[in-house]
Structures are given as C-alpha cells and as structure tokens.
C-alpha cells in the first residue's frame, strides 16, 4: 500500500516534468520565431523581398499585366536559372529602367536573345503595355519565374494582403513571440514559487524536529547522559585499581 506522501511526491515530480517539457518547447518555439524574424528582416533589408527554399511571394501593385494579373494578385516566384526561361513565361526581375531602377517588376518574356558576349538576354513586356521594356533582363537582375498566381479575392491572396501590412506583421510575428515569451516567464515564475514552497517546507520540518524536546527535557536528557558517563568512568577506574592491586601481590 502506497503512502500518501509518496503519492504526492510522484504527482509533484510528474507535474515538474510536464512544466519542464512545456518550457523547453516554448523556448524552442521562441528561438525559431526569433530566427525567422531575423531572417525576414535581413532579407528585406538586403534584397527587398523574402525568399525561402528558392521561393518568394510578391503582390502585384500595378496594372501592367492586366487582365492576366490584376492589381492585388499574389505571385509565387521560383528562383530559376536564366537558361531555363522560355518565351511567353512570366518572370520577376529588378528593373534597370532609370525611372524605376531597382524596383521589382513582373512582366512576360516576349523573346529570348543572345548578346554579343554570349550571355542570354530576355526581352519583356507587360500584357497591358503597348511596347516592350526598354532594358533587357539578364542573369544579374533576374529573380525567377512565376510558377503560380492567385488573383485578388482568392483566400490565399487576401491573407497575404492582410499579413503584408503592419497589423498583419504584428499578428503573424510579434503577437506569437510575445505570447511565447509570456508563457516562458510564467513557467519561470511557477518554478520559483515551487522552489520557495519547498524551502519553506524543509525549514518547517527542521524546526519541527528541533522542537521535539522542551528545554527542561533537553536539560534532563543531558543530566542523564552526564550521569551515565560518570558511572562508566568510575567503574573503569575501579577495575583498573583492582588489576593494579592484583599485580602487586604476584611474585
């Protein structure tokens, strides 16, 4: 039959392990969130867009590709070597046009050419534009090929549109991070409270053991021990005297 104290101890250990596992998982999630946030910030700062495993998401903000890609459409662009790009495919690239230099543009490839140096050149044009772009796309400014797109009103496109603004960023990144941090803080506080309770219980047990005897009982116990020691010492002295006397009589 198990003692109540042992059962309570088992429950406390089980609860402690559950808290430790939960805290470890929350810490791992917080680290992953922090790494993702840092990766997003660094990519946006350096390249202006975010890319994971060679894929990037873009949102159409002009009508140059209408009616194929209306404003608000969501694009999935895959990093692709320029040698694999074919005519009539839609690509994303950084513009070399002085008016929009460095901006990300999504246009259709109308022809694939080879320059005098042997490098491949892509001539691009917006479906709604009357003329082709003034600058060729090269391997240096090509981002990739559009593999999939969803027009505005699509669930995925609408979700990305919401999450791409400041409020969406708070909902997607900041709020979960703060939530996880709060969970970790709560776990730490609970652990500290358990340690404090345990120390208080140990102190109370020490005091209870110290209070098993009153002051008079302590004094009586000390007197009894002192008397027993004195009696043993007297008996030992008497035995030694008898031995000495016996030795003196022996020839």
What does it look like?
With 251 residues, the chain is of the alpha+beta class. It has a domain at 51-152: Ribbon (Umud Fragment, subunit A). The chain has helices at residues 4-46, 155-163, 166-210, 215-249, and strands spanning 51-52, 55-59, 74-78, 90-94, 104-114, 120-125, 142-150. The chain has a seven-stranded antiparallel β-sheet with strand order 1-2-3-7-4-5-6. The longest helix has 45 residues, at 166-210. The chain is rod-shaped, with a radius of gyration of 42 Å. The two termini are 71 Å apart. 12% of the residues are buried.
On the 0 to 100 scale, the average pLDDT is 75
- Unreliably modeled segments: 1-5, 247-251
**Total of helices:** 4
Q: SSE string, helix = H, strand = E?
A: HEEEEEEEHHH
CA(first)-CA(last) distance:
71 Å
Structural class by secondary-structure content: alpha+beta
Total strands: 7
Quote the CATH topology of one domain: Umud Fragment, subunit A
CATH superfamily label of one domain: Umud Fragment, subunit A
For the biggest sheet, the summary is:
7 strands, antiparallel
- Across the major sheet, the strand order is 1-2-3-7-4-5-6
CATH class of one domain: Mainly Beta
């Amino acid at each position: 039959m198990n003692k109540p104290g042992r059962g309570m101890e088992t429950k406390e250990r089980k609860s402690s392990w559950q808290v430790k596992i939960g805290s470890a998982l929350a810490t791992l999630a917080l680290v992953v969130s922090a790494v993702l946030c840092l990766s997003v910030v660094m990519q946006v700062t350096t390249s202006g867009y975010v890319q994971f495993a060679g894929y990037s998401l873009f949102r159409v903000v002009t009508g140059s590709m209408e009616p194929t890609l209306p404003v608000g459409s969501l694009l999935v662009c895959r990093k692709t070597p320029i040698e694999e790009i074919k005519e009539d495919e839609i690509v994303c690239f950084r513009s070399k046009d002085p008016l929009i230099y460095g901006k990300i543009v999504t246009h259709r490839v109308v022809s694939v050419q080879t320059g005098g140096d042997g490098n491949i050149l892509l001539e691009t044009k917006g479906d709604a534009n009357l003329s082709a772009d003034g600058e060729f796309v090269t391997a240096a400014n090509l981002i990739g090929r559009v593999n999939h797109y969803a027009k505005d009103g699509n669930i995925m496109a609408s979700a990305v549109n919401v999450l791409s603004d400041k409020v969406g960023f708070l909902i997607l990144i900041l709020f979960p991070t703060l939530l996880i941090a709060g969970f970790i803080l709560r776990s730490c506080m609970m652990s500290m409270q358990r340690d404090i309770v345990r120390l208080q219980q140990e102190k109370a047990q020490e005091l209870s053991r110290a209070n098993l005897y009153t002051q008079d009982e302590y004094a009586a116990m000390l007197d009894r021990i002192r008397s027993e020691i004195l009696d043993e010492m007297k008996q030992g002295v008497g035995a030694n005297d008898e031995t000495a006397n016996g030795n003196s009589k022996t020839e």
